[in-house]
Amino acid sequence: MKKWSVALLVIVVIGAAAFFALRVHNTPEGMRVIAIANLMSHPILDTVQENLLAELKREGYEDGKNVRIILRNANGQMQVVPSIANELVAQDSDIIIAITTPMSQAVKKVAQCPVVFGAVTDPVGAGLIASLDQGEEMITGTSDAVPYDEQLRLIRRITPNVKRLGVLFNPGEAASQYGIKQLRKFAPDFGFTLIEGPVSSTGDVYPVAQNLAHRVDAILISTDNTVAAGIAAAVKVATEHKVPLYACDSGSIEKGALAAVSAGYAQVGIDTGKLAVRVLKGERGIPSVTAKGSEVYINKKAAEMMGVSVPNEIIQNATKVYKEIKE
Amino acid sequence: MLVPLDIGLIMGLLLAWAVMALALAFRLLDFPDLTVEGSLPLGAAVFAILHKSGASMPVAMVYAILSGGVAGALTGFIHIRFKLNKFLAGIIVVAITYSLSLRIMGASNIGLLQATSVFDFVEPLNTAFPESFHFGTIVLLVAFLILGSFLILYGLSTRYGIRLRVAGSNPDYAKALGINVPMNVIAGLAITNCLAAFSGVLLSMHQGFADISMGQGVLILALAAMTIGERLLPEKHLPFHVFVLCAAILGSIAYQVLVAYAVRAGLAATDLKLATAIMVLLVVAFRVSRNGDLLAEAHQ
Amino acid sequence: MSTHKGTIEIKGLTVTFSRWRQTVKAIEGVNLTVPAGQWMVVVGHNGSGKSTLLRAISGLLTPNGGEIRIDGDSLGGLSSAQVAERVFHVHQDPLLGTAPTLTLFENLFVADAAAQNGGASRNDLLDKYSDLLRPLGLADRLKQLARYLSGGERQLLALTVARLRPAAVMLLDEPLAALDPVKAELCLEQIKALNDEGKTILQVTHDPNLAISAGDRTLVLRQGRFAYDEVGDRREADSLRKAWSLDAGGGISIWKK
Question: What is the pTM of this model?
Answer without folding.
Answer: 0.82
